[in-house]
Specification:
alpha+beta, 25% strand, single chain, disordered N terminus, 13 strands
């Protein structure tokens, strides 16, 4: 038997080599490409990724009402808070006359401030033991806790909007359906009127609901030029003020926006407490608990913006 073909020298005429050659000749594919039919498309999940990106967490909400009103000290429990506020002060100074005393003595009175009654904010997540024990990055329980803390501030932001809606405030009434130059003129007139009042120049916080904020950004003059200057993430400079948008000031809140002095609207919150509680073998609980309260302590230094009927 011959073990070579033209141009080829067989150096291993062993039985194993003979068998392999015979099998290849019998079952060889019609085209060489058919030998490599495994691709990424048909391998499915059998192929492990070469690289893994980090976990992409949920983007938190902005909280402009909370940021503008939060104050120290932080709450430690749900006990009601009381305090005193300025009520009146007269005869503080007058033109003097030689040889004469003041015409009237100083009078100074204080009044009880509004009682602030904190409300609790709570949440609970129940995680299976298997998910809790997994070595994911970040840990499931840690990410749930982070999302709870973010949701805590969302609740606080909504409560500030609710407190503002419930407060007795002087209203700035805009022309019904005001837009463009009319909207700018109404707000400029209102701001100018505030500047001549005691405490008026201090009303520098300006927040607008989504609808009013959009109207400001889109307002144009008769030539089609924008009346405001919008900067993403910073707000819109319009009618002499820098306005921040608040998602919490919806139509249901009863106002389109507010202007107020820092310290006139006060929000106090506790540091949210998050605990992992193991009370069952098959699950682990993650608990969140905290408090918040918002009060209009100086309602005369705040204005509610509404559209006329």
């Amino acid at each position: 038997m011959l073990w070579a073909t033209k141009g080829t020298k067989v150096t291993d005429p062993s039985p194993k080599r003979i068998l392999n050659s015979a099998l290849y000749a019998a079952f060889a594919p019609a085209t060489p490409a058919a030998q490599f039919a495994v691709t990424r498309a048909n391998a499915g999940t059998g192929l492990l990724p070469n690289h893994q990106y980090d976990y992409l967490a949920q983007t938190p909400q902005a909280h402009p009402l909370y940021d503008a009103t939060v104050t120290d000290p932080a709450l430690t429990d749900g006990q009601p808070l009381t305090g005193a506020i300025h009520a009146s002060f007269t005869n503080g100074a007058a033109t003097g006359t030689e040889g004469s005393g003041p015409g009237a003595d100083v009078t100074f009175t204080v009044a009880s401030g509004p009682t602030q009654s904190p409300q609790s904010i709570i949440a609970r997540a129940v995680i299976t033991r298997e998910a809790y024990d997994s070595l994911s990055a970040p840990r499931t329980a840690d990410e749930v806790a982070n999302l709870m803390r973010s949701a805590f501030l969302d609740v606080v932001e909504g409560r500030v909007a609710t407190a503002l809606a419930a407060a007795t405030l002087t209203e700035i009434e805009l022309t019904a359906a005001a837009a463009d130059a009319v909207l700018e003129g109404d707000l400029l007139t209102a701001s100018a009127a505030l500047d001549v009042l005691r405490g008026g120049p201090d009303m520098t916080v300006s927040v607008a609901g989504p609808s009013l904020f959009t109207d400001m950004v889109e307002a144009k003059d008769s030539g089609g030029r924008r009346l405001g200057r919008y900067t993403a993430g910073q707000g819109v400079a319009f009618a002499g003020r820098l306005w921040s948008p608040s998602w919490a000031l919806t139509a249901a809140s009863g106002a389109t926006g507010y202007v107020f002095a820092p310290g006139s609207i006060v929000t106090r919150v506790s540091v949210p407490v998050v605990r992992e509680v193991q009370i069952a073998v098959e699950t682990v609980d993650v608990w969140l608990q905290g408090y918040s309260v918002t009060s209009a302590v100086r309602p005369t230094e705040a204005r509610r913006i509404v559209f006329g009927a």
